[in-house]
Amino acid sequence: MTTGTAGNTALILIGFQHDYFDPSGILHGVVEESHRVSGTLENTISLIEAFKDSDMVMVSTPIVFSEFYEEIQNPIGILKTIRDVQAFKTGTPGAETIPEIKAYGDRIVELPGKKSFNAFSNTRLQSMLQEHGVTKVIFAGCVTSICVHASALQAFDLGYEVTMLSDCTSARTPIEQEFFCSDVFPLFSHVLTLEELMNGETAGSK
Question: Phi and psi for 75 in degrees, rounded to 5?
Answer without folding.
Answer: -75, 80
